[in-house]
Inverse folding.
């Protein structure tokens, strides 16, 4: 017995714990995000004119639309990485899909809170069953369902596989949802919403459009940065899990 | 007949199988021994195409496990821990259903004959849910061989069986062997292993620790080796 | 492939007809939904007639979800699902078999419960029964196709009966929008039949797209 103990003392693993270098990509994303965010603030509050009828509340529009854009982008990224995962079965693809979905939930939540504020001041009702807003609501539920699939118990590759499948059919569902809702609602509000690609596109002032585009760019950077950070964080968690398992094995044998 | 090369399986961060190399020729009856959690059931599940391996190669008669999965599945008769039977249905219905899935000809007669062979002809029209563990296991064995498989994968088939049932099971394995059937059998029952198998594989910690042939009935050799490898420390 | 699927569907329907567990539960549940609807919307009131076309789908969706969950969870007892998976067929055959069984089951529930609903609410169809049957068919098809798939996905969870509605409702929202609109027109206002037909086309397109997708992806769901 004592012999055994003696023998097992030595080979405790010297774990390679090199500090995680902040890579070039992180720096670029971080810089881009900070710069574009500052620019966005300038354009929103200094450059863009104040809307005549709605006043300052209209500024929420610069939060609302880019968030919606990021939410859809996030779901698209989840979709792409889900397909990649099913083909290649590499864990990092799954991590990207997962982190992107988590970000997507946050941004759909932003859309769903700013939307009613906008609706209240613009159409004097808290919620309009307007196609884009309703689609975002369903998107939110789909994201939530996706995360629920991730919450299942079991080994990661099973959860990842099922979540990937759900991510794919969920994304395929979104355009049909949008189309169905638009069609459903167009009968009731045909004039207010029209069927052009952007309801705001009609009456928007050029300065507002510029501010909007800058904000969208800023939000895209923000998204990319959070995604990148989130993925490195998840990867670290996975690594720690590996080390723990290795250590446990060493202790057992 | 079965070629396994560098087979590994990982679940979460744990390696369950860590590099299995195994080659089994037709007609062999192989017993797989090892402690609980050694990875024996996992090995059988990989072979039965239930679990995808993380890496490695498995060939059955030169056929690829994934690409030719339908052909390969036809050759296997798989008996896991659970019975794979529908509780509400009778033995006959269960056997006919699975026989149909395998495309067995004249399935009803074949099913009746098998129920007779495992000694349950009195209960052929009783729902399986009223059966005892041993009776269920007998029907489960019949289910596994309904399509006359070329390879049997049996996972602890002896547990919970009385003497009569063990004899029936051994006879099934031996008669299948006469027809040229290959058998892989996970078991903790050394006596049965020594009685009907002609090769023993000891799995330890996801690897093959020993692999040897035995002549008939050399029970002491098996337990001796097992003691040395598994229980006698590392 | 079709042979294996039919074998599975036959097995499911046959054992259901004997035990009548799921089907009975679904029909009783449909009856209860009708009862609750009668509390919520006064049957004596004439304006209530407007909610009947929607009520048809509430019944189908809620009783359908019970059956969907059961049809895959029941394969976990004794791990019979593994028995199907080691049998020589593609995963899509299992899906197809389960789909056919669930689809027949929901059709039976519809045949029993919808006349009952119309009777209790004294609802007179002013539209076309033929088109009504068609829309029931198209809508149930889509709902059950995606429902069977998601039930297979959810059955991996211990609390699948809670997970399934969360997955299924947002996913089938286009079908539900489409069929409720179409049903309303067909039952009460046949002049706008062309709108109803285009709704049915939308739902049919959804059915096709998702049936194919489910067919392709079921293999990844039914891995152990
Ligand atoms: N689905 C799974 N997820 C995680 N670990 C598993 C899973 N299946 C088996 N294992 C682990 O794999 C090891 C081998 O299991 P198994 O093959 O059933 O062993 P045996 O049949 O030899 O007793 C066990 O330690 C078990 O905990
Ligand atoms: Mg085991």
């Amino acid at each position: 017995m004592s012999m055994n103990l003696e023998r097992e003392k030595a080979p405790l693993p010297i774990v390679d714990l090199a500090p995680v270098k902040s890579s070039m990509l992180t720096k670029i994303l971080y810089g881009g995000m900070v710069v574009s965010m500052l620019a966005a603030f300038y354009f929103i509050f200094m450059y863009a004119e104040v809307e005549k009828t709605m006043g300052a509340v209209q500024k929420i529009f610069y939060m609302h639309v880019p968030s919606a854009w990021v939410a859809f982008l996030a779901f698209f990224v989840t979709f792409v990485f889900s397909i990649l995962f099913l083909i290649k079965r590499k864990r990092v693809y799954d991590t990207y899909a997962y982190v992107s979905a988590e970000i997507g939930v946050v941004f759909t939540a932003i859309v769903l809170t700013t939307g009613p504020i906008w609706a209240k001041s613009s159409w004097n009702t808290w919620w309009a069953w307007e196609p884009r807003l309703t689609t975002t609501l369903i998107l939110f539920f789909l994201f939530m369902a996706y995360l629920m699939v991730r919450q299942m118990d079991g080994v990661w590759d099973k959860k990842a596989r099922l979540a990937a499948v759900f991510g794919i059919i969920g994304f395929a569902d979104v355009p049909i949802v949008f189309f169905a809702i638009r069609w459903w609602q167009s009968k009731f509000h045909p004039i207010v919403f029209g069927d052009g690609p952007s309801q705001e596109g009609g009456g928007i002032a050029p300065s507002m459009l510029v501010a909007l585009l800058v904000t969208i760019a800023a939000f895209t950077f923000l998204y990319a940065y959070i995604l990148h950070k989130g993925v490195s964080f998840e990867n670290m968690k996975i690594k720690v899990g590996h080390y723990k398992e290795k250590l446990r094995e060493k202790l057992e044998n | 007949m079965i070629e396994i090369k560098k087979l590994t399986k990982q679940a979460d961060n744990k390696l369950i199988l860590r590099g299995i190399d195994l080659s089994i020729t037709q007609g062999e009856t192989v017993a797989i021994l090892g402690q609980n959690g050694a990875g024996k059931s996992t090995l059988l599940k990989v072979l039965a195409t239930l679990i995808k391996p993380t890496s490695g190669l498995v060939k059955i008669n030169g056929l690829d496990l994934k690409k030719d999965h339908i052909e390969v599945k036809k050759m296997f008769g798989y008996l896991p821990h659970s019975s794979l039977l529908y509780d509400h249905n009778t033995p006959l219905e269960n056997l006919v259903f699975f026989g149909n899935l395998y495309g067995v000809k004249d399935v009803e007669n074949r099913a009746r004959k098998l129920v007779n062979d495992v000694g349950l002809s009195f209960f052929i029209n009783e729902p399986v849910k009223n059966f005892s563990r041993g009776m269920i296991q007998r029907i489960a064995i019949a289910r596994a061989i309904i399509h006359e498989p070329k390879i049997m994968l049996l996972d602890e088939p002896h547990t919970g069986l009385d003497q009569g049932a063990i004899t029936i099971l051994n006879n099934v394995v031996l008669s299948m062997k006469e027809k040229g059937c290959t058998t892989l059998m996970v078991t903790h029952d050394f006596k049965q292993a020594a009685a009907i198998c002609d090769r023993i594989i000891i799995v330890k910690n996801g690897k093959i620790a020993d692999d040897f042939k035995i002549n008939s009935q050399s029970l002491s050799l098996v337990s001796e080796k097992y003691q040395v490898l598994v229980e006698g420390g590392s | 492939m079709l042979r294996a699927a039919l074998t599975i569907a036959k097995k499911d329907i046959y054992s259901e007809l004997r035990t009548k567990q799921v089907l009975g539960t679904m029909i009783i549940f449909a009856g209860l939904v009708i009862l609750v609807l009668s509390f919520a919307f006064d049957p004596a009131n004439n304006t209530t007639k407007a909610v009947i076309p929607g009520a048809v789908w509430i019944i189908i969706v809620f009783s359908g979800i019970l059956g969907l969950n059961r049809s895959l969870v029941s394969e976990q007892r004794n791990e019979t699902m593994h028995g199907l998976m080691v049998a020589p067929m593609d995963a899509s055959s299992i899906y197809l078999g389960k789909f056919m069984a669930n689809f027949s089951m929901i059709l039976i529930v519809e045949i029993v419960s919808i006349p009952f609903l119309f009777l209790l609410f004294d609802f007179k169809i002013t539209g076309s029964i033929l088109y009504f049957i068609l829309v029931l068919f198209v809508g149930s098809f889509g709902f059950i196709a995606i429902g069977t798939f998601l039930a297979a996905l959810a059955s991996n969870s211990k609390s699948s009966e809670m997970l399934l509605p969360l997955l299924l409702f947002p996913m089938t929202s286009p079908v539900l929008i489409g069929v409720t609109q179409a049903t309303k027109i067909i039952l009460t206002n046949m002049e706008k039949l062309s709108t109803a037909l285009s709704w049915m086309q939308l739902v049919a397109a959804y059915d096709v797209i998702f049936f194919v997708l489910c067919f392709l992806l079921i293999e990844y769901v039914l891995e152990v």
Remarks:
- The interface with chain B takes residues 3-4, 7-8, 11, 15, 18-19, 77-80, 82-90, 223-224 of chain C (CB under 8 Å).
- The pocket of adenosine-5'-diphosphate (ligand 1) is lined by residues A 155; B 11, 16, 34, 36-42 (CB under 6 Å).
